[in-house]
Structure formats: C-alpha cells, structure tokens
Amino acid sequence: MVFAKDTIKKLNIEADDSVLPLAVSQLGKPWHKLAEHINKNYDNFDVNLSRYFLNKFRINTSLANIIFSIEENKKCHQIYSCSAGKIAFEIDRPLLLKLLHDFYGVTDSPELSDASEITQTELRLQERLGDEISQIFLTPEVIGLPIALQPHHNQQHSHWAWSLSFQLRGYSQGVITLHFDHQLIDQILSGLRQENEHTPPAAISDDQLERQLRRVPFTLTAQLASVETTLERLLTLNVDDVLPVFLNESVPIILGDEVLFQAKVSEHQGQLVLSDFIDHYTR
C-alpha cells in the first residue's frame, strides 16, 4: 500500500517511522514465499559457503543469518546477467577489508582503511567473491532452472525488486548482499507456482499401499448389552433405581456401523477380554 503524506499524518505515522511502500508491480505477488523458499535451502547455503571459504581461503566461517528486503533503488556496478534476469553483488567495505586482511595477510594500514576509492587489490577480491558466491546461491533449486551467469561490471542498474543480505559468522561488521531484478523474481515465483500446481503424487507399489493400510488405526466397539424399556419407565427413573442387564453368550464387535464378527467376553488376569471370535456372516 502506498501512503500519501496526508494519509500518513491521519494515521499518526511519524516521518522517521519505517513505512515500506509497495509499487503497483508488487501487488499480488507472494513475497513471503521467497523468504520461505530461501530459508528452505538455508542448510545447503551454509554448508556450501563454509566449504567454499575453507577450501579457497582456509578461513573457518559459515552463514550467520539471512535478511530480506523488498524494492530497493541502489546503484550497483557488479552486475551479472542470465537467461532469467539480472543479479547484483555487493559487499560492505569493512567486511571486504577484513576478508582482505585474513585472506592475503594485508595489514590494516591507515592508507588502506581510509582510502576514498577502492583499491585494485580490493576490487580483485570483490569480483572473485561475487563470481563464486553468486553461484552458491543461484542454484537450479532456487531459480527453478539451471543458469549461467555472465558478468557485466561495466553496466549500471539501480532498481531492484528484492534482495537478500547475510553475515558471515565471526565477522560482526558488514554484510554481503545479492540484489534480484523483477524478471528474476518473476522466474522464481513462477517456478514455485508450477512446483505447487504440478507436483505429481509419489507413486507407491501395491505392497507399500498394503503396508500403509495395515498400519491405519481404527476403533472396535463391543456391544456388551442392550436394554429394552418403555418411555414411561425411562421418565420415572430415579437415583438408586436399577435396570437389569443380561449379558449375551456372545456380543457383536462393531467397526463404525458394520458388525464384523461375534465374540465372547472372558476374563484374563483380572481384565475383561474378547475371545472365541466368530465370523458374523457365517452365523
């Protein structure tokens, strides 16, 4: 919902409150399913990211958390394109400098930390991280189809439909962010819809079906006695009155409304049990 300034005043929303505007293109899209979809693959991201940093840089880290945001206007220069759309890679400079120190042993010199422009060493590491980390997150399971990313770092794109940001465990400053354009988000949502609509039921064999049916719980009811009386007698019942009950030699065993068989009521180790089953249909 897009709020005008007058509407915001009527709702007593302060100017510095966090109000998320939604464009017309966003209406009707199940944005919550994107977060669910990513979190469903969280363990895979965590394992692959941990293995990546350990194998490539000998750094023991892992995925700390993932944060999602909708509709962001931000100029990004490290852009990748594929058949499904565009994605941008972004890393906060404090995190990049810390990784640069840990990966290459570069000291945190004032010249490096306070530089106004990114150095060639930082740029090389940033591009390498973007090339390889993007592949970790943009898997066929996430996108819905296999894709090949092509870098277009000389281009510029500033309007992004959705983004995910994550921290690395052990690095408290800075996040890594992946921005998705509308075309790529539409592809992911389309894949989720098709998955929900066309997922065929898992085929099971006759033996598996029989085993499952044999484990279905049900309740058997044994009708021990029935009493026939009149309405007049029923209306005159008082406390301490007694209705005589006579147990039959065999009682019906009922499943739902169907009588399955007859059985005798017996005693075994102080408990009532059913015994001597007789097929109801042979009587």
UniProtKB/TrEMBL annotation:
It holds the Pfam family FliMN_C. Residues 212-273 form the Flagellar motor switch protein FliN-like C-terminal domain. This is Flagellar motor switch protein FliN-like C-terminal domain-containing protein. It comes from Rosenbergiella gaditana. The lineage of its organism: Bacteria, Pseudomonadati, Pseudomonadota, Gammaproteobacteria, Enterobacterales.
